[in-house]
Amino acid sequence: MRTRITLECTECKNRNYNMTKDKKTHPERMETKKYCKFCRSHTLHKETK
Asked: What is the pTM assigned to this prediction?
C-alpha cells in the first residue's frame, strides 16, 4: 500500500511536492534534492508528517 507524503523545503519551509511511497520498503523519512520555485534553486526537501 502506497501512502501520500509531502516534501518541504529545508531553506524556506514551503511545502512544494506531493508524492507517494511504499512504507514497507522505505520506512524511514525521505530526503531528496529538488527545485524550489520560491528559493529559485535546488535545495534539500524532507518528508513531513
From this structure: 0.83
| Residue 36 buriedness (CB in 10 A; 0-12 / 13-18 / 19+) | buried
Q: What is the CA radius of gyration of the chain?
A: 11
SS3 state of residue 34:
strand
- Nearest 5°: phi and psi at 21? -150, 160
| Complete domains list, the chain, with CATH | 1-46 (2.20.28.120)
Q: Give the CA diameter of the chain.
A: 34
**pLDDT 10s digits, 20-49:** 999 999 999 999 999 999 999 999 999 998
